[in-house]
Design goal:
The structure is a homodimer of 353-residue chains. The first copy, chain A, is α+β, with helices and mostly antiparallel strands and 353 residues long. Chain A has 2 domains: 52-166, 60s Ribosomal Protein L30, Chain: A, CATH 3.30.1330; 174-340, Alpha-Beta Complex (Phosphoribosyl-aminoimidazole Synthetase, Chain A, domain 2), CATH 3.90.650.10. Chain A has helices at residues 31-45, 48-51, 85-98, 119-136, 191-199, 217-227, 241-253, 268-277, 299-307, and strands at residues 56-61, 64-73, 79-80, 83-84, 102-114, 139-148, 156-166, 182-185, 231-235, 256-260, 291-294, 316-322, 329-332, 338-340. In chain A, strand 5 (102-114), helix 4 and strand 6 (139-148) form a beta-alpha-beta unit. Chain A is globular, with a radius of gyration of 19 Å. Chains A and B meet through helix 1, strand 1, strand 2, strand 5 and helix 4 of A and helix 1, strand 1, strand 2, strand 5 and helix 4 of B.
Chain lengths: 353, 353
């Protein structure tokens, strides 16, 4: 059984009178994030490219298409089972580039360090970044470090920006989902989020779960080679989880998405931990999983491509695109009922990435 | 008269036994920053491009050269006379690109917001960024926002990453200074640093100084058109000031640099504030000034180009490159003496950008 995930769900309460200040919920990836972006960023910047709500931007360049994407990482704790803020910052950004159908090439990395951070922690983080960059096939070409006084940051924050090049075989975008498209996920849901929660000691129990942080370009490349034309949308369900990504795509494409609860690949350890915390695995972040919307004729081949890749062995067909209601994601439960899988208003798990 | 600026100078003391942790001095742009980069970043990343110590990287691309550069901004307070963290974050990164002889084209911007930040402050910062981007001729194409709990950041931090394209008329680099080169600065020294100090209320006096934050590409372009081949090095003296930049160039080029104290364009308000604080203006950050190393035959023309540009009206010839001692910067004082202008060991003015 999953906990409720609609408006009355487990999101953080909003303090009264806090409407004119930043709240934790603004960082959730849910409705409050969306409102913050629309009202306080997009209007001022006025950039059409930002309005597309993709993870990055596509820039025409000398007959090719460059892709640029940026992300700040503020995960706490900075080290968790299966990874740390360093490999997370590399994989997070190369995956955003891969989800735009581009091959990641170069990264920049900017560090904000808190006075008192043990250099041994910094060394482990930097070593993880170097290893993750090598695995992902990117070079870290530019960097910056700033230091702030003790108590003015939280250990370290890392911002990575990536540059990639569109490959030509894939041009996925969030607004391209069409009724009939099949929704595939490449692996188990919720591992990253639950690994971070476990590292915080919030579970009151020991669970055997590691973050899935991994670079996804090779998986995207494999899809592109075999069924490139049939891939309408690619996303990685990080902050906000699968529910967040599907809601974004449903809204951008003006379609509905129908999930089958029984088809969702939720590891037993994640399911158990979610029950303890009263969370829904649909909202818990992955960092090494992709969601693909593909045409129905190509769905079986796409699933096979995913399953024959080491990162996609547990790939599954989890739902389909329907006409409507536009923007709505629904879940058919094991009991034959249907419930709405809404965007959360505020924070489910702050600082998960 | 200037205060001492050598090892015994006004840098923050290093707490005993703190050698295995990050200290404020690691963010100074001085010796400790250099040591941190060498021992904890370059070795792990092993990138030749990072080793060049330029502000960004040059990437060959389809017969052109792309330039990428990144910087985190943690200035406190976030608003100060003449600017705020928003325009500073735009100008800082477009200037790093311009200093590599490249025209800035696109920016990404990643925000780390502290819970409780007034949205009115955020709005002013974002509006300044939009205006600065327009003035600099760049588009902000990708962004990210993260929120951390109250007390885990300091208002807001902004990381900008820029992409530019080399123009062909200029290819400056820190290792290209040659004996005989003339050192030019495009404007008055120390305005940004002193404006931030004034905003902190640290001066105990009122001074009439605003940050000089401005985008420098048009100035670089003008230089490039008239004397491009003669420009060996371009840098902007931000964190660490003119002294920091000249020491870096002297070390990278294995030459000496000799400054003339009487030629340094230090505004009276900056000089007075520095005396109150016991600081040397040579170490105080500018954010709208460039330093150019040009061949002696082109020096007069370069100076004229700078002086006819609105941002370069107070440009001055401040010194020259000498054979050695390699890596050493010296200053001929008004009294006919000579002193060494060393890198500071630690922090002079933390969180100035």
């Amino acid at each position: 059984m999953m906990a409720s995930s609609s408006w009355g769900g487990p999101a953080c309460p909003v303090p009264a009178g806090a409407g004119d200040r930043i709240q934790l919920g603004h960082g959730s990836g849910g409705r409050m994030t969306l409102a913050l972006l629309k009202e306080h960023f997009f209007r001022a910047f006025g950039g059409q490219k930002l309005e597309l709500m993709a993870d990055g931007a596509v820039l025409p360049w000398q007959g090719q298409e460059l892709v640029i994407s940026t992300d700040s990482f503020v995960v706490t704790p900075v080290e968790f089972p299966g990874g740390n803020i360093g490999d997370l910052a590399v994989n997070g950004t190369v995956n955003d580039i891969a989800m735009m159908g581009a091959e990641p090439r170069h990264l920049s990395a900017a560090f904000i360090l808190e006075e008192g951070l043990p250099l041994a922690v910094l060394d482990r983080v930097v070593a993880s970044m170097a290893k993750a960059a090598e695995r992902a096939g990117v070079t870290i070409v530019a960097g910056d470090t700033k230091v702030v006084e003790k108590g003015k940051a939280d250990g370290l924050f890392v911002t990575t920006t990536g540059v990639g090049v569109r490959w030509g075989k894939l041009s996925p975008a969030p607004h391209q989902a069409r009724p009939g498209d099949v929704v595939l996920v490449s692996g188990p849901l919720g591992r990253h989020g639950m690994a971070v929660m476990a590292a915080r000691g919030n579970l009151g129990m020991w669970i055997d779960v590691e973050s899935d942080t991994a670079p996804l370009w090779s998986l995207v490349e494999a899809l592109g080679r075999r069924v490139g034309d049939s891939v309408h949308v690619l996303r990685d369900p990080t902050r906000g989880g699968l529910a967040g990504v599907l809601n974004e795509v449903a809204a951008a494409s003006r379609v509905g998405v129908r999930l089958e609860e029984g088809a969702l690949p939720v590891p037993e350890a994640v399911r158990a931990a979610c029950e303890v915390l009263g969370l829904d695995p649909l909202y818990v972040a992955c960092e090494g999983v992709l969601v693909a919307f593909v045409t129905p004729d190509a769905a079986s081949e796409a699933l096979e491509v995913l399953r024959t890749h080491p990162l996609g062995r547990e790939a599954a067909r989890v739902g389909e695109v329907v006409e409507g209601p536009p923007g709505m994601v629904t879940l058919r439960t094991g009991f034959g009922g249907t419930r709405v899988v809404d965007l959360l208003p505020g924070s489910l798990l702050p600082r998960i990435c």
